[in-house]
Write a structure and sequence with these properties.
alpha+beta; 2 domains; six-stranded antiparallel β-sheet; Transferase(Phosphotransferase), domain 1; Phosphorylase Kinase, domain 1; single chain; about 15% strand; three-stranded antiparallel β-sheet
Length: about 325
């Protein structure tokens, strides 16, 4: 049985096997199109993260060409917050990528353990991710799948830098999948909790879709959950496209209005209404987090709230926009 046959079987199918000069030691994680292993580089005697892509991808000539090109672009980005790519190639019917092995945990595990983070900590982590994203955008590489599981948090160097953050899974297959038939019309590559509206709509994307996804991640770091939480996938896709995100302070009252404003701009529906870069976004977040909260004016808040409540009660909620055509089979008959 070859490596391509073992990849689709039980998780331990490749343990102890040699793949292109790498000895597979243990499985780190898996997704729909790839499995990542901890492996030993037998030539240089170092530990690496070895990502093996699904065998059917290697059989698509268009994908293989895109994979080779995007791997070279990613490997050429020398940045302290992007996991370095050591090698990418094909062997025994498999496409593989060898990357630096980062000892630590991903942001998903960190948030599951700690819950919401202080604004200062969230801004510090997000700033490192933003630096990586902007560097990739300068090379015309868009991540398209920024999420806590793709953000690795390792120990930092000192008390002023308590963590060192890496962004991984950097777009090596996202664009290729969309160009080779592995994502059909109306589908997209990305994680639903963090996906930008233009990705859902199948429109062209640029670095501003990563601003939106990073905004969703920051929102979760600050409040304990992503901005939109729905019972099913279709409702979640609808919310990203049409529903205004709740203010972070509505879920965590100690957050300031300044933080609300920064996140609202990051999560704007239209790309042109968002921050122009990821670092511009996280810089504004850092400043908002360090600014003192403005004290409420006595009597004004209560008066404004009661007046707004009366107006809202009189007017009633605004009607939702009609569902897009692709959603009609789902929404038909729900009136």
């Amino acid at each position: 049985m070859g490596a391509a046959d073992s990849l689709g079987g039980r998780p331990s199918g490749l343990l102890g096997k040699k793949i292109a000069g790498y000895l597979v030691e243990s499985e780190i994680g898996r997704g729909g199109m790839a499995v990542v292993y901890r492996a030993r580089d037998l030539r240089l005697d170092r530990t690496v993260a070895l990502k093996l892509l699904a065998p059917e991808l290697a059989r698509n000539d268009t994908f293989r060409k895109r994979f080779a090109h995007e791997s070279k672009v990613a490997a050429a980005i020398d940045h302290p917050h992007i996991v370095p790519v050591f090698e990418a190639g094909e062997t025994d019917g498999l496409l593989y990528i060898a990357m630096r092995f980062v000892a630590g945990q991903d942001l998903r595990a960190l948030l599951d353990r700690t819950g919401p983070l202080p604004v200062e900590t969230a801004a510090r982590i997000a700033g490192q991710v933003a630096s990586a994203l902007d560097a990739a955008h300068d090379h015309d590489l868009v991540h398209r799948d920024v999420k806590p599981g793709n953000i690795l948090v390792a120990d930092g160097t000192d008390s002023e830098h308590p963590e060192h953050v890496y962004l991984t899974d950097f777009g090596l297959t996202k664009k290729s999948l969309s160009l080779t038939g592995f994502t059909s019309v109306g589908q997209f590559v990305g994680t639903l909790d963090y996906v930008a509206p233009e990705q859902i709509a199948g429109k062209p994307v640029d670095g501003r879709c990563d601003v939106y996804s990073l905004g969703c991640v920051v929102y979760e770091m600050l409040t304990g959950g992503p901005p939109f939480q729905r019972d099913d996938d279709m409702a979640l896709l609808w919310a990203h496209q049409f529903d205004p995100p709740p203010a972070p302070s509505s879920r965590r009252p100690q957050l300031t209005a300044a933080v609300d404003e920064v996140l609202a701009k990051a999560l704007a529906k239209a790309p042109e209404d968002r921050w122009a870069s990821c670092l511009e976004f996280t810089g504004a977040l850092r400043r908002a987090g360090s600014a003192p909260a403005a004290p409420p004016v006595a009597g004004a808040v209560a008066g404004a709230a009661s007046e707004a409540g009366a107006l809202a009660q009189a007017a009633g909620p605004p009607p939702p926009p009609p569902p897009p055509r692709w959603a009609l089979p789902v929404f038909r008959g729900r009136a």
